[in-house]
Amino acid sequence: MRINKTDRQNGVLALVVLAGVYASMGLFARYLSIGFLVFQQVYLRVFAAFFLGLICFNKNLDFSKLKKISQKEWLLLIFRSAAIYLFGVTLFTKAINIAKFSSVSFIGSIPITPVLAVLILKEKLTWKKIILILTAFLGVTLIAVKDYSQIFIWGKGEVISLISTFFSAPAMLPENYIPIY
């Protein structure tokens, strides 16, 4: 007998699965570092995710919709893909291999997206938003940091992790945002 789940239950399940996948990314990177270079690891993981997506979502995929995408939307997809995979995931993989897993996880959890929204998109900064950003930062700090005297002692891996977090953040920016240089 199949039980119908509510959207809330599906959302919670999706968040749990997402957290598990995110936590295992570092394990995959360290395991694959034994025999593969950083870029090889990234494209192997991307292709594995692509094939798993084809298998899991084959009934929902409609590739004919790709013909309807405008040039502006293609530029947005290319920008976000390059930012996330070429720089974000590659630098994350490099960082996880040379720094402590907990440090990289802490830095990756820093709420960079709202800060970038204020800086890049000129999002209006209100007291409510400041409190939410600070609360997110304090929550990450309370969960991830064990020795507060060592929090700002960073090595090469931690700096690379912070840079990768900035490149991963554009995935969260609004769909109509295209950077103009």
Q: Would you kindly provide a written description of the structure presented here, covering whatever features stand out?
A:
With 181 residues, the chain is mostly helical. It has one domain (8-58, 71-172). Helices cover 66% and strands 0% of the residues. It is built from seven helices and no strands. It has helices at residues 7-32, 38-56, 71-98, 101-108, 112-119, 127-144, 156-168. Helix 4 packs parallel to helix 7 (156-168). The longest helix is centred in the middle third of the chain and has 28 residues, at 71-98. The relative contact order is 0.12. Residues 177-181 have low confidence and may be disordered.
Summarize the structure.
The chain is mostly helical. The protein has helices at residues 7-32, 38-56, 71-98, 101-108, 112-119, 127-144, 156-168.
